[in-house]
Design a protein that fits this description.
single chain, 14% strand, binds farnesyl diphosphate, alpha/beta, globular, 249 residues, Undecaprenyl pyrophosphate synthetase, 6-stranded parallel β-sheet, disordered C terminus, 6 strands
Length: 249
C-alpha cells in the first residue's frame, strides 16, 4: 500500500492548507481583446472550479487572495466590478453551492471605511450561513495586506497591555485575523509572476511556493492537482538538516 493513486497523488500527504494568489485576470482578458473586467468574471469561474478540486483532494483549508489593500488604487469601474463579482457571485450565488458542499466561508482583511456596508453585510451573511460546515474552509482575503495584518496584530497586543517579555510567536498568531487558520503548506501563484505581493506574510514562513504560467482564469482543478504533486515532490525541512516531511513545527 503506497497511498499513491493512479493520478500520482499521495492521498496520505495532502497539504492541509493551500493558498492561491489568483493573478493574470487582466492579461487573460487583454489577450482576447476583452475588457479587464471580463477577466475577473472568468476568474470567479476558475475560483469555483479550484475550490471544488480542493474539496475533492481533501484539502481542509483553501485560501484565495481576492482583493488587496492596494487594489483600491485601480480605476473606479474595475474596483466596483470586483466588489460586485465578490459580493454578487461568490457571496450570493456560489455561497449556496458552497454551503451545500459543506464549505465554510470566512474572511481575512481590514474592515475599514473603504469596504461598502453592503459588501460587509454579504460577507457576514455568508460566514454565518456556512459557519457550521466542516468539509473545507474557504478563506477569502478581502481588503487584505500581509503587513496590515501584522500591524493590526501589534496594535491589538499593545491595546491589550501585554508586556513585551510575554510576547512570542504564539502571541502574534493569536492576534492575526483568523487565529485558528493553520499556516499554508502550499502557496500557488499563477500568471508567471514570482512574487509574494503582501500575501500572508506571517503565515507563509515555511510554505512551499509553486509558480505556474497559467493565467488565473484558465486555472482549473487539474492545475491544482499538478501543484499538489509538485508539493509532494518537495522535502520540507523547516530549517532542520534532515527530512521531516509534512511535520508541522
Ligand atoms: C489579479 O488579476 C486578480 C485580482 C486583482 C483579484 C482576483 C479576483 C478574482 C479571481 C475575481 C473573482 C474573485 C472572487 C473572490 C470571486 P490582475 O487584474 O492583477 O491581472 P493582471 O496582472 O493580468 O493585470
Amino acid at each position: 500500500m503506497t497511498g499513491v493513486r493512479p493520478d500520482g497523488i499521495d492521498y496520505r500527504r495532502i497539504p492541509r492548507h493551500v493558498a492561491c494568489v489568483m493573478d493574470g485576470n487582466g492579461r487573460w482578458a487583454t489577450n482576447r481583446g476583452l475588457a479587464r473586467t471580463e477577466g475577473h468574471r472568468a476568474g470567479e469561474e476558475a475560483l469555483f472550479d479550484a475550490a471544488c478540486g480542493a474539496l475533492e483532494l481533501g484539502i481542509s483549508y483553501f485560501t484565495v487572495y481576492a482583493f488587496s489593500t492596494e487594489n483600491w488604487r485601480r480605476p473606479h469601474e474595475e474596483v466596483r466590478f470586483l466588489l460586485d463579482v465578490i459580493a454578487d457571485q461568490l457571496l450570493t450565488r456560489r455561497r449556496d453551492d458552497l454551503h451545500r458542499m459543506g464549505v465554510r466561508i470566512q474572511f481575512i482583511g481590514r474592515r475599514d471605511w473603504r469596504v461598502p456596508r453592503w459588501v460587509v453585510r454579504r460577507m457576514d451573511e455568508a460566514a454565518a450561513l456556512t459557519a457550521p460546515n466542516r468539509e473545507m474552509t474557504l478563506t477569502v482575503a478581502f481588503n487584505y495586506g500581509g503587513r496590515a495584518e501584522i500591524v493590526d496584530a501589534v496594535k491589538a497586543i499593545v491595546e491589550e497591555g501585554i508586556p513585551a517579555r510575554r510576547i512570542d510567536d504564539r502571541t502574534v498568531r493569536r492576534h492575526l485575523y483568523q487565529p485558528e487558520l493553520p499556516d499554508p503548506d502550499l502557496v500557488i501563484r499563477t500568471s508567471g509572476e514570482f512574487r509574494v505581493s503582501n500575501f500572508l506574510l506571517w503565515e507563509l514562513a515555511y510554505s512551499e511556493l509553486v509558480f505556474t504560467d497559467v493565467l488565473w482564469p484558465d486555472f482549473r482543478r487539474s492545475h491544482l492537482a499538478d501543484a499538489v504533486r509538485e508539493y509532494q515532490s518537495r522535502d520540507r525541512r523547516y530549517g532542520n538538516a534532515g527530512s521531516r516531511r509534512d511535520a508541522i513545527p
